[in-house]
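Q: What would this chain look like folded?
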Amino acid sequence: DELVSLASKCEAGDPLNPTNEFWWSQQFRHLLGFESEADFPDVFESWSSRLHPQEKDTVLGAFAAHLNDRSGRTPYDIDYRLQLKNGSYRWFCARGATQRDAQGVPLRVAGSLADIDDQRRQQDDGKQHDQRHNQIPNVGAQGGNHGKRIEDLFTSEGKIAVKHIEQGLPQ
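A: My prediction, written as structure tokens:
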């Protein structure tokens, strides 16, 4: 069942309710650089206080919307940054499912957390490349066979390849 499948992947917790406990798995703690419940307690704030300020309201809002939708149709599937124990931030993808009673009241939430930092950084690098691509004038616009394609002006690291520009411009 989906709830058990999600819970086995990384983290699990009960809904945000003062009478319910939160539980963070050891896998979850290790993803953030923590070793035990002593340094990452089983409380909501252990997680929420580590949300990146730019995503915190969105993440908490998505969690609340998921819990408060008694129909169970609002998914919890969101990417956000969490602060690691060492102070740095990494991107994660969180997914959750909620077990509900007959009236749709949340009984238990289980979720998974996947480290997607490398993929997000590659995407961001690609977006930056595209932005630079669109900002550089077409060197070949002066006609003839003097220009290089804009894609040829960049190295694999996204830096302008000066030799290509010099070779492509008329003297």
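Residues 117-135 form the longest helix (19 residues).
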